[in-house]
Amino acid sequence: MAWLVPERARGVVDLGAGTGKLTRALRAPGREVIAVEPSAGMRERFSQVLPGVRVLEGTGESIPLPDSSVDTVVCAQAWHWVDPRRAVPEIARVLRTGGRLGLVWNSRDLSAPWVAELERILRDYAAAPTEDRQVDRVGAPFGPVERQDFRWSHPMTAEEILDMVASRSYVITLEHATREELLGRVRGLLDAERPTEMPYVTEGYRAELESL
């Protein structure tokens, strides 16, 4: 989080906060984190999980905060849903001069050979939805966009990985025979590899507000 959010940041917006997974990591002593989330159901769940954090109805294009009121806006796994033509100036509006926009995506780490093979199997049957991350559309009044990747692993058994694959919407909607064939191939890969964790890579992007 230190790479995305400066230590000096005292007001941080978690844009598209969902149920608050990122919000937990953004919190720090002396810092107010404000969640902005368009879904009423997500906001309700958020308030149950993090009752001490303010959560507001809003979107990247309409943030219910005053001008120049926060130091950083972070958007995780959601920037591809916004209209940058409207969201970029709106985020710039709520940021103080020198404030920062941070964008984050988590994905499976394909540098691990067995994870790359898992991805190939999935794409043989049901290509995952593609995302136009629109990072190149973060322009003025923000400065250059910097990128840094962070690799990490989440403990998972082979059975948990199989369940994760089976629960994906693009797998659920396959015809039964095709779905069973796919899961059989995944099961064979996992039986051979016997993984104890799923490696991930977090792609981080940041840009600082220069002038309005």
From TrEMBL:
SUPFAM superfamilies: S-adenosyl-L-methionine-dependent methyltransferases (SSF53335). Keywords: Methyltransferase, Transferase. Belongs to the methyltransferase superfamily. The keyword Methyltransferase applies. Coiled coil: none annotated. PANTHER family: METHYLTRANSF_11 DOMAIN-CONTAINING PROTEIN, METHYLTRANSFERASE TYPE 11 DOMAIN-CONTAINING PROTEIN. InterPro entries: Diverse_substrate_MTase (IPR051052), Methyltransf_11 (IPR013216), SAM-dependent_MTases_sf (IPR029063). GO terms for molecular function: S-adenosylmethionine-dependent methyltransferase activity. Signal peptide: none annotated. Pfam families: Methyltransf_11. It comes from the Bacteria. Residues 13-101 form the Methyltransferase type domain. One of its GO terms (biological process) is methylation. This is Methyltransferase type 11 domain-containing protein. The keyword Transferase applies.
